[in-house]
Amino acid sequence: NVLVRTAMDEEQLEVVLLRCGLCHQVDAETIQDLKHLTQLLRRGADSEEVGHLILTRVHCRSGGQAEQVHDLDGFFSSINSLLGKSAGCGVMPPLRGAVLLHRFLEILHRHKLKASEVHLQVATSAAATHAVCSRLDPFSYGGLFEALLEVAPDKG
Question: 121 Cβ partners below 8 Å, 6+ apart?
Fold first, then answer.
């Protein structure tokens, strides 16, 4: 990851190289999962659609079964709250990667969902990188929202 920012004297640019080192290699399936999630977020999908993606691509892929989920309706409601849908705004900036990750992990734990090591590595890597970027460029909120949209660009 590369970040270009204005230097302290504001007449020069600094190039900052970021290497978080948490995610060494991401398989094609996980990349597709991230693209699918991003496409759902881009078009404002409802919590059930996002929840079903999490159930099938994260929980079941990690060896979990749908019937193991504790309080499925509560899970969808939790996803709704995480996405900010209850306020009618959807997922919008400013996003805070560490806060989103923490809330998401709480939801997984509360509803007895599993997550693969690879999904956790990608999520943790994104949250850590976002935290560093937010400190380097606090005015863009670390660019998490924009970076997510670049993963699955709008095809329309």
Answer: 22, 23, 26
